[in-house]
Amino acid sequence: MKSRLKPHSVPTRSALRPDPVTLVLNIGNTSLFGGVSRGKTLRTFRLAQNDLAGLHAELARAKKVTSAVLCSVVPKLTPKIAVLVKRATGVTPHVLGADSPHGLQIAYRDPKKLGADRLAAAIGARALFPQKNVIVVDCGTATTVTALTKTGEIAGGAILPGAGLWAEALAGRTAQLPKIKLGQPRTSAGRSPEEAIASGIYFGHLGAVRELVARLRHEVFRGAQVVVVGTGGNAPLYAGEKLFTVEEPRLILHGLLVQAGALSHHA
After folding, report:
1. Which of the two residues, 100 and 19, has the higher pLDDT score?
2. What is the pTM of this model?
3. Are 92 and 117 members of one domain?
4. Which stretches does DSSP call E strand in the chain?
5. Chain-wide mean pLDDT for the chain?
6. 139: CATH
7. 182 inside domain
8. Active site residues
9. What domain count does the chain have?
10. Which residues of 227-249 are buried (b: 16+ CB within 10 A; e: fewer)?
11. Which of 172, 166, 174 is nearest to 209 (CA)?
């Protein structure tokens, strides 16, 4: 599915004043997914999580950064990345958390335990689909399913191992099963260990996510209309399965950009 997200735009400014340049970065379990917004354009990049040299090169390209917002699910790496951003750009990044001025209600028993990536995705979903019920399915290292009500409450959701972790677990915890490359199998009736694993992972993960989405529709939204947004690196695998209403690969970055705008208004 095509993305609904248009190039990020900022309020019109005088020609005598340069457009703000915003750096956004998601520190994930597998990768560093970032973007640089300048005017109406958003240049994105994706690096391996440990590729700090590559990140430094990307930061060097991002000239005259005026603000930076990051989210992280890797606490040990967060301060190191924040220092790197500060040294490269001169800007101290805001680290998104439950206490940030995001305008959402978090129904977790302890709101601070909600993953910052899920919060960023919810902020992005709220901006793209205002006043609508949304379920965000983020297919990354872990697959997260998050319910966001039309009133702006993150009602909860589910976390399960991502499709890639299924493959790693089978290869790592069994004596004879090989590790496979993720993809859509032609049939569920695999006729080799590789084909059978591919079938189990692809259709099993698809079924799990469908079940979770169905339960959230019933338990949280009581059958009301819901927009299901797919995001994350593995979301394109399921683009043809009618699992998502829309696929938005940059959802987390969009949420971070929205947060940057909110911070500028609170400054």
Report:
1. 100
2. 0.90
3. no
4. 21-27, 31-38, 41-48, 67-72, 94-95, 105-106, 134-139, 142-148, 153-161, 227-231, 246-247
5. 92
6. 3.30.420.40
7. yes
8. 117
9. 2
10. bbbbbbbbbebbeeeebbbbbbb
11. 166
